Amino acid sequence: MKNRITGYIMGLVFAASLYSCDFRKKETTTEESQTTSETTTPVAKSNAPAFNPDSAYHYVAKQVSFGPRVPNTVAHRSCGNYLIQKLKSLGAQVQVQEFEGTTYDGKKLQLRNIIGSYNPGAANRILLASHWDTRPFADKDETNPTTPADGANDGASGVGVLLELGRTLNQAQQNPGVGVDIIFFDGEDWGNPNGDENGQDSWCLGSQYWATHKHQANYTANFGILLDMVGANGAKFAPEGFSQEYAPQVVTAVWKTANQIGYSDYFIYTPNGGITDDHKYMTQGGVPSIDIIDYDPTSPDGTFGKYHHRHTDNMSIIDKNTLKAVGQTLLQVIYNQTAV
Predict the structure, then answer these.
(1) How many CA atoms lie within 13 A of 215 on its CB side?
(2) According to the model, what pLDDT value does residue 8 have?
(3) Is 53-339 in CATH node 3.40.630.10?
(4) Tens-digit pLDDT profile for residues 307-325
(5) Which residues partner with 17 through β-bridges?
(6) Helix/strand/coil (H, E, C) string of the chain?
(7) Model-level pTM?
(8) Do residues 103 and 188 make contact, with C-beta atoms less than 8 angstroms apart?
């Protein structure tokens, strides 16, 4: 079975036809959309600081060194403690949301959303997010589907990019004119592999919680950007279908920026369908958000990399060039925020 959202996902802004709304977390099921044109919406140019891919790679490797970050395990708790202390050391104002989540198979999980804020007094804000937990089983692996993978790309890569972005903001001589909030969502990847029924979503527990329990009363941001699987060698990021409905102008600005600063090999304009991910709940929580997510139509799944939910999701697939492409694009977008 696949989760179905009714009355919420309609035709995309850029599409000439309506879309199917039948989809499962991390599965593309909508029809292909007509995507953003490279010739639309010029992006203002501003000098952004350089993103250090070596440092980002180190942050990815550090997370992996704890072992799979499966909720309710020592590795999960230890890595969460590390992320909290690291954000503090990088100059962020840190808040932690502790909550209990229930999995599709009835397990009670002790979870933490970890939030780091830069320039917390700024009224205009940007929300950046990734999940930091690891799926409890590599259920797509052909030889060992019952134990967890390292989750180097699926989870750790996005967190690594955002930690390095926070370090860069903390040390930059010129600060952007906006505040930046970084959220590491927990409990994202313990979803039902067979799909959900009755309109429930067993994925994205952390962002579902945040959407109804904001870390700050009346919190709002101009827009949000979710990173999911952003470190693999040869990764391609196609405009995701629901992102184009939630925040089409942000999709345009991000892809235009990436192409202008030399990352057209990564940020491609190939049509992609809609994917249930944390950006759905970021949007439902009042922050229109997009998803930067690896897209590989040649993979066994027809959507995600060949490593997805397999034991090949380890440090061997993480590429500093990919981390650089994503991190530098984000910095440029932040420093050009008025163009969005």
Answers:
(1) 23
(2) 31
(3) yes
(4) 999 999 999 999 999 999 9
(5) none
(6) CCCECCCCCCCCCCCCCCCCCECCECCCCCCCCCCCCCCCCCCCCCCCCCCCHHHHHHHHHHHHHCCCCCCCCHHHHHHHHHHHHHHHHCCCEEEEEEEEEECCCCCEEEEEEEEEEECCCCCCEEEEEEECCCCCCCCCCCCCCCCCCCCHHHHHHHHHHHHHHHHHHHHCCCCCCCEEEEEEECCCCCCCCCCCCCCCCCCCHHHHHHHHCCCCCCCCCCEEEEEECCCECCCCECCCHHHHHHCHHHHHHHHHHHHHCCCCCCECCCCCCCCECHHHHHHHCCCCEEEEEECCCCCCCCCCCCCCCCCCCCHHHECHHHHHHHHHHHHHHHHCHHHC
(7) 0.89
(8) no
Cα 106 from Cα 14, distance rounded (Å): 40
List pLDDT tens digits, range 74-104: 999 999 999 999 999 999 999 999 999 999 9
- What is the rounded CA–CA span in Å between residue 276 and residue 59? 26
* CA separation for the pair 339, 250 (Å, rounded): 9
CB–CB of 238/141 below 8 Å? no
Answer yes or no: are the C-beta atoms of 4 and 25 closer than 8 Å: no
Residue-wise pLDDT tens digits, 1-43: 223 232 233 333 333 322 223 233 444 444 334 444 444 455 5
Task: Tell me how far apart the alpha carbons of residues 53 and 51 are, in angstroms, rounded to a whole number.
Answer: 6
Reference 65, options 55, 74, 75; nearest CA is: 75
